[in-house]
Amino acid sequence: MSADVTDLNGRPVIIGGGAAGLMTALELAPEPVVLLSKSPLGAEASSMWAQGGLAAAVGNDDAPALHLADTLAAGAGLCDETAARRIVDAAPAAVERLAGLGVAFDRRADGGWRLGLEAAHGRNRIVHATGDGTGREIMRALIAEVRRTPSIALLEGVEARRLLVEDNAIKGVLAANDRGALTIATNRVVIATGGIGGLFADSTNPGGCFGQGLALAAHAGAKLSDLEFVQFHPTAFDGPSRPMPLLTEAIRGDGAWLIDETGHRFMADEPGAELAPRDIVARAVWRHRAAGHRTFLDARRHPGADFAQRYPVISAFCKMAGIDPAHDPIPIRPAVHYHMGGIAVDGEGRSSVQGLWACGEAARTGLHGANRLASNSLMEAIVCAQWVAASIADAGAGPCTTMCTETILPAADPSAVRPILTQGLGVLRDHIGVARAIRSLYPLARSESAASDAALIGLMIAVAAMRREESRGGHFRTDFPDTAASAVPSSLTRNEALAAARELAESVPSVRSALS
User: Fold this and answer.
1) pLDDT for 503
2) Straight-line distance from the first to the last Cα atom of the chain, in angstroms, rounded to the nearest whole number
3) What SS3 class is residue 323?
4) 3-class DSSP assignment, residue 326
5) What is the pLDDT, as a whole number, of residue 516?
6) pLDDT averaged over the chain?
7) pLDDT band per the 50, 70, 90 thresholds, residue 410
8) Using alpha carbons only, what angle is made at residue 148 by residues 88 and 376, rounded to the nearest 5 degrees?
9) Are 13-194+340-395 and 236-334 equal in CATH topology?
10) Is the pLDDT of residue 75 over 80?
11) Residue-level pLDDT at 508
12) Are strands 189-191 and 13-15 parallel, antiparallel or unpaired?
């Protein structure tokens, strides 16, 4: 349903219209909630674009313990094993829950799940829909269910600009739409705004996903963790479109190869070959391109003539670019795809600020560690939404007093930040590049301009990357190429990041001039 804001005070407010936000709202029903979406539902949600599916141990040859082992291996020592075990154990039930909500997952002739294989999985455990349209199908079903749920007050075209906080406790949400500012008094807020891909020039994420939820949490004083770990998908379509169309890992699971312009299969001798963990494949593609080669996904032999049937969405955009995947290699390059870091939360999704929860890609639950295992993200969002909703319901509504606020900040614009992060925080990083990024981001982060929120999150990522003097998972330092003996999670608050940037000025000459 839609509603005016006059009677919404006291309800939980969910910020974000992707799978995590929609599922949290549904799990809270019949408790009345407010769902804020800055665009029409699904229009700027990364969930809509997800091709691979949900990872769940539902096959006869599989078990949650095997799924956990693959997750921990991919996470490169930084997964929270207790949290990861709890989440993967709940994954099969999450698939059934979605099916019960009307998601039409692909099935075999005998009615069982048709399961795919993706990189670093030891079993076929990817539950998908319409081949490569899983995210679209899940969002279709969730949006329909939200729109017919009377307890959900849906405010589309409304963007949260700040969280109102007093004594480290949530008091409300300051938001805006095309008619001006509005304030909702509440002691319960969920951030489910997705990732940070829009902070980079080359990303598979919608351009509107650039860390706004992380900025809301940071300004509220929340702790953010593992921000330096950014996953680059190795096979984004190498063309002019932005966001970059994704070529799902499932194609490589079906037997496709990575080749260069000479036809050389440059991953053939690597452990796992094309199905090595994503960070390894992305770095191999990046380095091969840096050596002067072009890189391609070769699906001509496998899946070959079945490509269009198995991957109709990908086949359609390839053909629009004049490429027939059954006969032509597909040009690819790495692009930002997922953020392992986010708002630090506990097992119920609670942040370090009282009354603030996070769910989905905006949250750092401990599942992904330094490198997300393919198709664990949609699964995490669906599973954790249930626990977040239960925690919110247990917290109950508190006394609500609308806090006064005099000004509404301008809508955030990441365009000034994109070239800085693209240059300094890419697939391969080093001290000089990260320091230059900090130099450029610090004054923007302290400003009151439209770039400030994006710059703040970029700065926090850069400071975390500077501090981690090792290479692990999605964070690779060419000046510290080895992995440290012990894995230590990182954490930052907004004030700590700003202080660290100034402290770096004392030891990094390239930063000093910008901070003086």
Assistant:
1) 82
2) 52
3) coil
4) coil
5) 45
6) 93
7) confident
8) 15
9) no
10) yes
11) 56
12) parallel
> Contact 72/79 with Cβ under 8 angstroms?
yes
- The rounded distance, in Å, linking the Cα atoms of 154 and 148 is 11
CA 182/CA 176 separation, integer angstroms: 6
Packed helices 494-505 and 212-219: angle between N→C axes, nearest 10 degrees: 90
Q: Is 515 a residue whose pLDDT tops 70? A: no
Q: Cβ-count burial of 404 within 10 angstroms (0-12 exposed, 13-18 middle, 19+ buried)?
A: exposed
State yes or no: pLDDT of 401 exceeds 90: no
In whole angstroms, what is the distance from residue 224 CA to residue 514 CA? 25
Distances (CA, A) of 143 to 64, 154, 157, 331, 356: 29, 11, 15, 34, 24
pLDDT value at 304 more than 80: yes
Helices 212-219 and 452-467: crossing angle, nearest 10°?
Answer: 80
Q: Is 86 a catalytic residue?
A: no
Q: To which residue do tokens 């006064």 refer?
A: 404
pLDDT per position as a tens digit, 187-225? 999 999 999 999 999 999 998 999 999 999 999 999 999
Catalytic residue among 278, 372, 418, 472: 278
Helix (H/G/I), strand (E/B), else coil: 265:
coil
Work out the angle between the directed axes of helices 376-395 and 19-28 (0-180°, nearest 10): 40
- What phi and psi, each to the nearest 5 degrees, are found at residue 127? -85, 125
In this prediction, residue 3 carries a pLDDT of 46
* Ramachandran assignment for 95, one of left (phi > 0), alpha (psi -120 to 50 degrees), beta (any other): alpha
CATH code of the region 13-194+340-395: 3.50.50.60
- Site of tokens 């001798």: 269
Class of domain 410-515: mainly alpha
pLDDT at 1: 37
pLDDT for the residue 505? 64
**Domain residue limits, the chain:** 13-194+340-395, 236-334, 410-515
Global pTM exceeds 0.90:
yes
Looking at domain 236-334, which of 3.90.700.10, 3.40.50.880, 3.40.50.720, 3.90.320.10 is its CATH number? Answer: 3.90.700.10
Looking up tokens 């956990």 gives 68
On whether the CB atoms of residues 173 and 163 are closer than 8 A, the answer is: yes
403 within 8 A of 171, measured Cβ to Cβ: yes
Q: Give the number of other CB atoms < 10 A from CB of residue 352.
A: 19
Q: Per the structure block, which two tokens stand in for 393?
A: 């319901």
Please give the average per-residue pLDDT across 258-286, as a whole number. 94
Which region, left, alpha or beta, applies to residue 102 given φ > 0 means left and ψ of -120 to 50 means alpha?
A: left
